[in-house]
């Protein structure tokens, strides 16, 4: 009995020390002067369960919109999300339609008004986005992102909202929908993937998305990480410090999909890309690809 008591006592103090250590890492980061911040010390697996109490109703943009998460529950084992639902224009609507047309295949989450015009939370990682005027062109953007206490709260709330809808243990695939206005990527559907994806599976994913694009008259090339057609957008910041770092550690596969502007903002094109995504995701799920 005494040995058992000593075991639990030692375990308690070990957990306490780990918590203090992780908190100190964040404290060191938050107290660092506003300079280039190497993204190496943030423990992406540490998420406090009460983070949303510090986020819900707390942030408002210049137009009076309250920053908010919208949850859409189902009983599936896939998850789709739009963490930049307003600044990545129409990605919120794309995820909402995919949820509706999925008929219970996947849970969904969107975030609105956490970024522009005056809020700059990255949401899927505990940082603020870098404003163009402050960027150093000689350094990767993700290395310039600023870690703040509020940004950490928003990120942790995002993670908790996801986990509240679907546990990581039962999740087969997590999909984030993003948008970009990069003119050099206007003919591509960029898809970043997790580090453990085999070349065979990467090419299978590419073939499925390319077929879905063609079947729905979307003249985009599926650029999938790990294939001969590499994407430009690879979700590096999230892989380093955010949700994708966490998913890598709990062995949940993920796809980061970047939709060019013309296929988000033009209604007819948006309808086509939604149909293509619906076809591809359904085929991935039906075929047990993940």
* Low-pLDDT residue spans: 4-41
Number of strands: 9
| Percent of sequence in beta strands | 15-25%
Largest sheet: 7 strands, mixed
Quaternary structure annotation: single chain
Rg over CA atoms? 20 Å
What percent of residues adopt helix (DSSP H or I)?
A: 25-40%
Number of helices: 8
Tell me the structural class: alpha/beta
Name the overall outline. globular
Terminal CA distance: 46 Å
Strand arrangement within the widest β-sheet reads: 1-3-2-6-9-7-8
Describe this protein with a few key phrases.
9 strands, alpha/beta, two-stranded antiparallel sheet, 290 residues, seven-stranded mixed beta sheet
Question: Could you characterize what this model shows?
Answer:
By secondary structure, the protein is α/β, with parallel strands linked by helices. Helix content is 39%, strand content 16%. It is built from eight helices and nine strands. The strands form two sheets. A seven-stranded mixed beta sheet has the order 1-3-2-6-9-7-8, sandwiched between helices. A two-stranded antiparallel sheet has the order 4-5. The radius of gyration is 20 Å and the shape is globular. The N and C termini lie far apart (46 Å). About 13% of the residues have low confidence.
Brief summary:
The strands form two sheets. This protein has a seven-stranded mixed β-sheet, sandwiched between helices. Strands 4-5 form a two-stranded antiparallel sheet.
List the helices and strands and how they pair.
Blueprint: H1 2-30, E1 68-72, E2 78-82, H2 91-102, E3 106-112, E4 127-128, E5 146-147, H3 149-165, E6 173-180, E7 188-193, H4 199-215, E8 221-224, H5 236-241, H6 243-249, E9 254-260, H7 262-265, H8 267-286
């Amino acid at each position: 009995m005494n040995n058992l008591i000593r075991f639990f006592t030692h375990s308690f103090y070990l957990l306490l020390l780990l918590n203090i250590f992780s908190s100190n890492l964040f404290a060191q980061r938050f107290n660092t002067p506003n300079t280039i911040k190497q993204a190496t010390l943030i423990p992406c697996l540490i998420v406090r369960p009460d983070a949303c109490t510090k986020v819900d109703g707390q942030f408002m943009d210049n137009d009076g919109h309250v920053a908010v998460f919208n949850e859409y529950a189902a009983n599936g084992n896939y998850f789709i999300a739009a963490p930049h639902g307003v600044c990545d224009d129409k990605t919120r609507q794309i995820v909402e339609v995919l949820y509706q047309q999925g008929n219970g295949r996947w849970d969904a989450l969107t975030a609105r008004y956490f970024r522009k015009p005056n809020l700059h939370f990255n949401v899927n990682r505990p940082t603020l986005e870098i404003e163009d005027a402050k960027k150093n062109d000689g350094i990767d953007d993700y290395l310039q992102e600023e870690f703040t206490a509020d940004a950490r709260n928003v990120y942790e709330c995002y993670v908790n909202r996801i986990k509240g809808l679907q546990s990581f243990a039962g999740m087969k695939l997590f999909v984030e929908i993003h948008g970009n206005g990069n003119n050099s990527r206007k003919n591509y559907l960029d898809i970043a993937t997790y580090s453990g994806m085999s070349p065979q599976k990467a090419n299978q994913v590419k073939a499925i998305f390319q077929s879905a694009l063609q079947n729905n008259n979307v003249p985009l090339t599926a650029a999938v990480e790990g294939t001969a057609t590499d994407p430009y957008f690879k979700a590096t910041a999230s892989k380093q410090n955010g949700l994708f770092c966490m998913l890598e550690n709990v062995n949940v596969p993920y796809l980061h999909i970047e939709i060019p502007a013309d296929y988000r903002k033009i209604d007819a094109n948006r309808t086509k890309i939604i149909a293509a995504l619906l076809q591809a995701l359904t085929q991935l799920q039906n075929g047990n690809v993940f």
